[in-house]
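Input (structure):
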């Protein structure tokens, strides 16, 4: 069974596209997939009821991504791949990357190909490029490898170690957004006002470096404050929505150590950092909807 996990970027989204480091975690929820020889290539996606043929020039990005994935296997039988998606799409949890990783992992398994999770992450970049044009690579890397890690484009992933698990509560605003558009919007801002946006990136980089130390020291109070500050900088880049702000405020008011939007923004998800498991459960109930708790060990 192929598997690609979802991810939550703790700090550093967007700046990571421009060469800054980011910290992310892999979560338990993700995408499973199975591949088997068939009479023609087909990608089935549940629970969406989609059955797609690969098409390099198709209108649907998933058709183009499937074509890009199959092109990595020049000699192979026709394959039917069935994927089960357990992540909201367009919500900042790395759904598209998780599908790509799961599909490639399933094809590898069906063809008896063995490769490391690092190589699988690299292969899945071909899939991600279809969706975002210029992805940093953080989504496919975290989807394949997981854990808690510091990522910088072009560098090896640096796993972070701590003896204290992170109690995260992930809340979905119900607003879906396009990573491609949000990344393009930051690029436009960078081009029109480089001083302001580069300052924002420098600020984010400083927060990421301090967050690494806070995670390693198990200082979640400090980590929470750094999350709040990162949220403010992302707001200044016009990536937050009123709904995401309200959810973060509500979580902080209810005692969360920190809260921020995660991923591309313009909708999608936020998360809150809780001090303990029972507080995480209370925050989940407060945020309601499709919110869920994820406990991650560094
Ligand atoms: C999307 O999950 C994270 C972004 O930083 C884009 C990327 O890193 O490719 C917004």
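Output (sequence):
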């Amino acid at each position: 069974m192929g598997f690609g996990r979802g991810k939550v970027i703790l700090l550093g989204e967007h700046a990571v596209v421009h060469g800054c480091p980011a910290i992310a975690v892999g979560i338990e929820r993700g995408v499973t997939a199975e591949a088997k020889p068939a009479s023609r290539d087909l990608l089935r996606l549940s629970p969406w009821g989609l059955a797609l043929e690969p098409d390099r020039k198709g209108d649907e990005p998933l058709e183009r991504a499937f074509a890009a994935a199959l092109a990595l296997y020049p000699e192979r039988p026709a394959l039917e791949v069935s994927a089960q998606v357990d992540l909201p799409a367009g919500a900042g949890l790395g759904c598209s990357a998780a599908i790509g990783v799961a599909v490639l992992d399933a094809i590898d398994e069906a063809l008896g190909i063995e490769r490391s999770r690092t190589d699988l992450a690299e292969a899945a970049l071909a899939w991600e490029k279809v969706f975002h044009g210029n992805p940093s690579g953080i989504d496919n890397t975290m989807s394949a490898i997981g854990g808690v890690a510091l990522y910088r484009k072009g560098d090896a992933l640096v796993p972070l170690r701590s003896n204290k698990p992170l109690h995260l509560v992930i809340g979905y605003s119900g607003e879906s957004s396009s990573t491609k558009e949000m990344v393009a919007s930051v690029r436009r801002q960078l081009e029109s006002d480089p001083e302001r946006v580069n300052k924002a990136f420098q600020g984010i980089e400083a927060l990421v470096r301090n967050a690494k130390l806070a995670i390693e020291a198990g200082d979640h109070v400090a980590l929470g404050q750094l999350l709040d500050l990162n949220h403010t900088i992302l707001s200044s880049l016009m990536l937050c929505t009123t709904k995401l702000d309200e959810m973060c405020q509500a979580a902080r008011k209810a005692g969360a150590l920190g809260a921020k939007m995660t991923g591309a923004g313009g909708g999608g998800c936020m998360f809150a950092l809780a001090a303990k498991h029972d507080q995480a459960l209370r925050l989940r109930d407060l945020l309601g909807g499709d919110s869920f708790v994820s406990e991650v060990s560094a």
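Notes: The chain has a mean pLDDT of 96. The CA atoms of residues 39 and 78 lie 6 Å apart.
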